[in-house]
Structure formats: structure tokens, C-alpha cells
Amino acid sequence: MTSPTPAPPADRTRREQLGQILRFALVGGVNTGTFFGIYLLLHPWLPYFAAYTLAFVLSMIGSFFMNTYFTYRTRPTWKKFLLFPLTNVTNYVIQSAGLYALVTWAGLDTRIAPLVAAVVAIPFTFLLSRKILTPGTGPTAEPAPERTSSTV
Fold it and tell me: pLDDT tens digits for 107-140?
């Protein structure tokens, strides 16, 4: 009986990246549900925009920890924590520009355009969050060190 041949490094890397993408999508779904749940809980007691803002900030903090530990399996640091909001700003800018373009130039229905713009923004958000949360990711990157205790 022979033992299975280990996957070549390129196959392993592709499999790891696919796993990150799937985990990123799962975290995004959980984060969206968390945001909306917090918003609905706060809405009766706060003005709607204050409830929205607080829910957004709390869900962004949750997203940071879910993405560091679950999606990218890396150690959270203060530097990563402070840079992480850039992913949300990027997401907002891409979605806003996409929404405008889809409605104004492509004539897409305003009820559907936000969903299409959100889907278009996902790869950009994924790549930026991966760059922030796992520095050195790229074609010539060194393997990430093993995860140790949190510094956040």
C-alpha cells in the first residue's frame, strides 16, 4: 500500500487561497447579519443614523477579529486593527462608484444595482483585507509565521 502523494506547492497555495475566499464570504455574511441585528436592536433607542453608525463600527470590529482568526488565520495586532477600516472605506468607494455607474450609465434598476455593485467590490475588499491582515502575501511572499497569542 502506498501513501498519498502530497499536493505540489502551487496546488496547495491555490487550495489555501480558495479556502480564504470561501471563509471571507462566510465572514461577510455573518458580518452583514450582525450589523443588521445590532442596527435593529439599537434603532428603537437611538436616532436611525446613530444606530447605523454604532452598528457599523461594532460589526467592523467583529469583522476584524473574524477575518484575522478565521479567514486568514493570522495574529491580530494594533497596526492591523488600525489599518483594517481601510477595507471598509475601499468597499464603500467601489460600491458607490459602481452603483452610480450601473444606474446612470448602464440604466440598471436602483433596486438591483446595489447588489451588483457589492458583488463587484468583493474581490477588491478581499485583496486589500488580505494585504492588511497577512502582510507579505503575494507571489514572492515568505510563509507566514505560526499564529501565537493575540496582541490586541
Answer: 999 988 888 898 899 899 999 999 999 987 654 4
Q: Residue 111 has what DSSP assignment?
A: T
Map residue 49 onto helix, strand or coil: helix
Please calculate the CA angle 144-88-76 and round it to the nearest 5 degrees: 30
Cβ contact 88:81 at 8 Å:
no
pTM of this structure? 0.75
**CB burial string 21-50: b at 16+ within 10 A, e below:** eebbeebbeebeebbeebbeebeeeeeeee
Q: Which residues contact 54 (CB under 8 A, 6 or more apart)?
A: 38, 42, 46
Instruction: Identify the CA nearest to 39 among candidates 54, 21, 61, 60.
Output: 54
Radius of gyration of the chain (CA): 18
Name the packing angle between helices 113-133 and 9-42 (round to 10°): 120
Length of the chain: 152
Q: What number of CA atoms fall less than 13 Å from residue 69's CA on the CB side?
A: 10
**Which residue, among 125, 98, 129, 126, has the nearest Cα to 114 in the 3D structure?**
98
